[in-house]
Structure formats: structure tokens, C-alpha cells
Design brief:
Layout: H1 2-24, H2 59-65, H3 69-83, H4 86-98, H5 106-118, E1 132-135, E2 138-141
Antiparallel strand pairs: 1-2
């Protein structure tokens, strides 16, 4: 009985395809010509798109903004190690201050902020500007 139903089902599918075949066949109407480019590139001409204006994207901050804190920490650490990048130092300070991807450590955060400020990053000049205040011997959040 199952075999009979399977055979009938296959026959119905074949009949439907045969009746619908004309929908898939090419019509006798000619196709429109393919669009041609406005001009042909000269050999040796640079046809690649122009590079975007401005500085390259900051991958460490991009990872930070997307919530990939461990990736942001890794990329920022590489930039500090290779280039002594003050913006990467500020990012490390932020990660430590908030405990994002690393254990929260206000002392390390303040140290990274100090190093960044000493190298010219004005976004965090002191622990006070980061919402942290000094109280000997520890940092305490406001």
C-alpha cells in the first residue's frame, strides 16, 4: 500500500513538472543586449576603488565598542608593546577601570591613564577625570 502511494506521488510530481515545463522554457523573444561599460580601462590603469579618506579604523576600539573586550585588550596590548600608542594605553586603562575582559584594577587603570597622558593622549589626564578618586592607599569609585 505504501509502495502504491509512493508511485502515485511520483507520478503526480512528474505530471506537474511536465505541465509546468513551458514556464521554464525560453520564449521566442530575443534577450536585450548586456549593458556595456561607459569606457574601457586602459591597460595599466588603476581600476581599484579609491582608499577611504582619513585614518585607518581603530580595530581595538572597534572590538571594545562591540563588546569583544578580550580582543580589544589583546589588540591594545600589541599596540602598546610595538608602538607605545597612547590611545591604546587609554583603552587599557578603561578596560581595567571597568573590569571588562580583565579583573577590575583601579591602580592599573590609573597607571595606564598616566602613561597615556604622559605620551600625549589628553582624554584621561588623571584618575579624577575617569571617575576614580585617590584615597591613600587605594582608589575608590565615586
Amino acid at each position: 500500500m505504501m509502495r502504491t502511494m509512493a508511485t502515485k506521488g511520483a507520478a503526480l510530481v512528474a505530471l506537474a513538472l511536465a505541465l509546468n515545463q513551458s514556464a521554464f522554457a525560453q520564449s521566442g523573444a530575443p534577450r536585450p543586449p548586456a549593458a556595456k561599460p561607459n569606457r574601457v580601462a586602459v591597460p595599466g590603469e588603476n581600476t581599484a576603488p579609491a582608499a577611504p579618506a582619513g585614518p585607518p579604523p581603530d580595530m581595538a576600539y572597534g572590538a571594545f565598542q562591540r563588546g569583544y573586550f578580550i580582543t580589544a585588550f589583546s589588540l591594545a596590548t600589541d599596540r602598546v608593546t610595538n608602538d607605545a600608542d597612547p590611545k591604546a594605553m587609554t583603552l587599557l586603562g578603561e578596560l581595567y577601570a571597568e573590569g571588562l575582559g580583565v579583573p577590575q584594577d583601579d591602580r592599573r587603570a590609573a597607571e595606564w591613564y598616566r602613561l597615556a597622558a604622559a605620551r600625549g593622549d589628553s582624554r584621561r589626564k588623571s584618575p579624577a577625570s575617569s571617575g576614580i578618586r585617590w584615597r591613600a592607599p587605594q582608589f575608590i569609585r565615586k
